[in-house]
Amino acid sequence: VDDRPPAGPAHPGHRDHLDEHLDHLDGQGHPVGYAHWFDVTAFCSDRLVVLPDDPLLSAVPAGQPAPAGVEVVPDQDALLRRLADALVGHLEPVVRAMRGTARLGPPALWGMVATQCAETFLLTEVATGDPQAGRAAADRFFALVGHVVRQRPRWVEFRFHGRTCTGIRGGACCLAHRLSGAYCATCPFMPDDDRRQRLRAEAEYACGGRPDPGELAAS
Length: 219
What we know:
This protein is mainly α. It contains 8 helices and 4 strands; from the N terminus they run H-E-E-H-H-H-H-E-E-H-H-H. The protein has helices at residues 14-19, 76-99, 106-122, 125-128, 133-144, 177-180, 192-206, 213-218; strands spanning 48-50, 70-72, 154-160, 163-169. Strand 3 and strand 4 (163-169) form a beta hairpin. Helix 2 (76-99) packs across helix 5 (133-144) and helix 3 runs antiparallel to helix 5. The protein is globular, with a radius of gyration of 19 Å.
């Protein structure tokens, strides 16, 4: 489902609308608070792992245990290890099942998982305000899952209205272009110069301008 907000007006005045956002861009060139159009990533569990300074624990009296189902780990490295173990454990049977029906091997399937993980890590800037924090955490995460993710994404920087933003080159291709003729912005078969052009178009679209990145993908 494509839930992108409508594009801004396609007339010369759209630049005024765009300018309203340029001082408040995230690390991907999108306005802070923008409803990203790619799929929301969900990982549901009846357990929650948090850091000692998590706001959830602020209501717990000193010396009392964490609420039921909540585990406190000492630092972010421990948190990332738990995330890596949980994510791999959750998706290994899914990848095995898909391998039986899809014409893609485990490296390609795990590569697509890795691309979605990389996108999600970049979104942490919305919470932290630090455009580098997500990249750093992702690099540490991929080091932990290297035994299954053999083809991790790499970062592609691009300039948008004077700011250096971050995009992704996937480590594996989903081969959807064989059906549609269109390449994803993360496709490893796309030259990086073309990728940066697409990323800038997506960023401008997110700010209310044109062109629509979906139209660029099909061109």
